[in-house]
Write a structure and sequence with these properties.
Blueprint: H1 6-20, H2 63-77, H3 88-100, H4 106-114, H5 120-129, H6 132-148, H7 159-171, H8 176-185, E1 188-189, H9 197-201, H10 206-218, H11 237-244, E2 250-254, H12 257-264, E3 293-297, E4 303-304, E5 313-314, H13 331-340, H14 347-359, H15 380-392, H16 397-405, H17 434-445, H18 447-451, H19 462-471, H20 509-522, H21 526-535, H22 537-545, H23 547-553, H24 558-570, H25 576-586, H26 591-606, H27 609-612
Antiparallel strand pairs: 1-3, 2-3, 4-5
Helix pairs in contact: 2-15, 2-16, 3-4, 3-5, 4-24, 6-7, 8-13, 10-11, 14-15, 14-16, 17-20, 17-22, 21-22, 22-23, 22-26, 23-24, 24-25, 24-26
Length: about 625
């Protein structure tokens, strides 16, 4: 009897449910289930026919030319009027956050805003790409991207060594395909070669490495096909295990310190230090440093599929069904050569999609690892051209970023109204990532600089204190530095020495900033984030002990103090309405009230939506 209506819908629902559980879909190798559905296997989508009027890939001055052409065409065809270009204050703050992970100082923001040079935006991009903090921030970004593909950090991973490798590779301007080869195919000790920590993070386990590699470097999530054929696409279980077979012989072995010394002759087992400008240095980086592991390949080893009647070894097979040609070749080397080759439809597009998500907002393919589910995204030609351009330019990272930031899409002003994100006609307000927010607070308040010296007595302005001391009786002095400013009941005789104060000891910045950075990464949910910014130690300590508040506090004119606090927090000058609102609070006859009002204004700006977004 044929099913129809509600019965057919229930049957379809049952089919999907059983297939998700690994019971309902059989793979080509013979797994049995209630239903017997043959899938053709995963095939990469065919290339789209390129627009002949688009700028030639090899002749485009930068990636921004391709972006502008495709979006201009899209806007014209759909009757969309793009927004205006953002102002200089917005651009300089956005560029600093996107490239070096923190806001500009007040002096940097003022200098850029007041600069009249027509090419100042391109010059600013170039300066930030050459900034040492660029290496730090993007080492953090790539380290976190790797860690996000793992359920937990493996016991054998040394996250500090991994960060140092990434930072050094970025500083040396290594191309993305070179970094990919080093991460996937390297062998050695994870404390000496930071790149092998990609393998040791997963403890050399083939299934976990297969899932991570395809997500991170290809943008394809094959994990759903580990135990069964993918319920919604043509991806089969064999596709997953064909990739896993490339890691079948990979191992991550524990070594004691004595074994390490015997094998390497090294007297220490830490990677060489590289310069870093992160607050607190390398010791402030969250993450474990794990065991001493050696990554290598065995001479033999195969994988088999689970949940099949007659499991057989699965040969190393690329996505799309092509097997590895040379059986004697090291498997990881063969895999990474296929991943990074120019003809691979996903390597360049995946990188372009990740960069688009970071710099523009919504990725062209969403989720970020959703290429396997989406054959052709709405802006498919744009993404294809960006991937081709990245490959044509030999996968160098900085020139690609530069071109993207020179595009109209990047330099758009944001819209207060809800505009369709897929049109990219306005900039999308994006929440700062944990590292951006953490370091933006430190830069805006100069907290680390303030904690480097004893607390400043803020009960009187310096000029008032000097005058009061000059008028005091001999042998009597008002409080200075760490002392309070309360009236003294006893004078100190001139022939007697005052009790010596203990020297000020600054805090351990590595411990302090590791704790504060970890809290930023661990905070989940809007309520917890609000409490972190409102009541957390970072903002409040930054205002109370940071050098920036003190430098602004002693400025003579209230207009100057207001401008400086806005430039420090938001990288712009206050509007007329904001000046009318805040200046009366800073202009009273009570200096103490003015100081408190300044701290309150600083706190309000650091907790504003404008500060926590870009």
């Amino acid at each position: 009897m044929a099913l129809s209506g509600r019965g057919l819908a229930m049957a379809r629902g049952l089919l999907v449910a059983l297939s998700v559980c690994g019971m309902g879909v059989s793979s080509a190798s013979g797994s049995s289930g209630i239903f017997d559905i043959k899938k053709p296997g995963y095939k990469p989508p065919a290339r789209l026919e390129r627009d002949p009027k688009a700028p030639a890939i090899g002749k485009a001055a930068h990636a921004g030319e391709l972006i502008d052409y495709h979006l201009d065409k899209y806007w014209n065809e759909n009757g969309i009027t793009p927004g205006p270009t953002c102002d200089d204050a917005t651009f300089v703050r956005r560029a600093h956050l996107d490239l070096i992970g923190t806001v500009p100082t007040a002096d940097e923001a003022r200098a850029f805003i007041d600069d009249k040079a027509p090419d100042k935006r391109a010059k600013k991009i170039d300066a930030l790409l050459a900034h040492p903090r660029f290496n730090d921030y993007w080492a953090l970004k790539w380290r976190d991207a790797i860690r996000e593909t793992a359920a937990v950090d493996g016991q054998g991973v040394n996250t500090l060594a991994l960060f140092k490798y990434l930072r050094e590779a970025i500083e040396q301007n290594k191309a993305w395909d070179v970094m990919t080869r080093e991460l996937i195919a390297s062998e050695g000790f994870n404390t000496l070669l930071g790149e092998v920590n990609y393998i040791s993070m997963f403890e050399g386990k083939a299934p976990e490495l297969a899932a991570s590699t395809t997500r991170l470097f290809l943008g394809v999530n094959v994990a759903c096909a580990q135990c069964h054929d993918h319920p919604y696409t043509d991806m089969r279980q064999e596709d997953f295990w064909g990739i896993a077979a490339f890691y079948a012989r990979t191992q991550s072995r524990f070594n004691t310190i004595d074994q390490f010394k015997e094998k390497t002759g090294a007297t220490q087992h830490w990677t060489k230090a590289a310069d870093t400008q992160l607050p607190g240095g390398f010791g402030a980086l969250p993450g474990a440093n794990g065991e001493n592991r050696e990554v290598s390949d065995r001479k033999s080893g195969e994988v088999t599929m689970p949940f099949v009647k007659d499991p057989k070894p699965i040969p190393p097979t690329y996505l799309g069904g092509e097997p590895m040609a040379d059986a004697n070749r090291p498997r990881r080397q063969a895999l990474v050569e296929w991943i990074t080759k120019k003809e691979n439809p996903y390597f360049g597009r995946n990188f372009a999609n990740r960069m688009w998500a970071h710099f523009i907002g919504k990725p062209l393919v969403s989720p970020i690892d959703g290429f396997g589910d989406i054959a052709h995204p709405e802006h498919g030609l744009l993404l294809q051209d960006l991937g081709d351009y990245f490959a044509e330019k030999r996968h160098y990272i900085k020139p690609f970023m530069r071109g993207l930031m020179l595009s109209k899409a990047y330099q758009m002003a944001s819209s207060p109204e809800h505009e369709s994100p897929k049109a990219y006609a306005f900039a999308q307000r994006r929440e700062l990532d944990p590292d951006q927010w953490h370091d933006a607070v430190l830069t805006a308040t100069q907290m680390a600089e303030g904690l480097s010296h004893p607390p400043v007595d803020r009960s009187r302005k310096p000029a008032e204190k000097k005058e009061a001391n000059a008028q005091a009786e001999p042998g009597v002095r008002l409080a200075v530095g760490n002392e309070t400013d309360k009236p003294q009941t006893k004078t100190v005789a001139n022939d007697k020495k005052a009790p010596e104060q203990k020297p000020y000891t600054p805090p351990r910045f590595d411990h302090l900033f590791k704790r504060t950075r970890e809290r930023c990464h661990q905070t989940i949910g809007p309520t917890a984030k609000a409490l972190l910014t409102i009541n957390g130690e970072l903002v409040n300590t930054g205002i109370n002990r940071g050098d920036r508040y003190e430098a602004i506090r002693v400025m003579e004119k209230p207009e100057q103090r207001l401008e400086e606090v806005f430039l420090s927090a938001l990288s712009r000058r206050p509007t007329q309405a904001e000046s009318e609102q805040f200046l009366p609070l800073l202009s009273t006859d009570d200096p103490a009230a003015n100081d408190q009002a300044l701290a309150d204004v600083f706190w309000v700006l650091l907790n504003s939506t404008e500060f926590v977004t870009r």
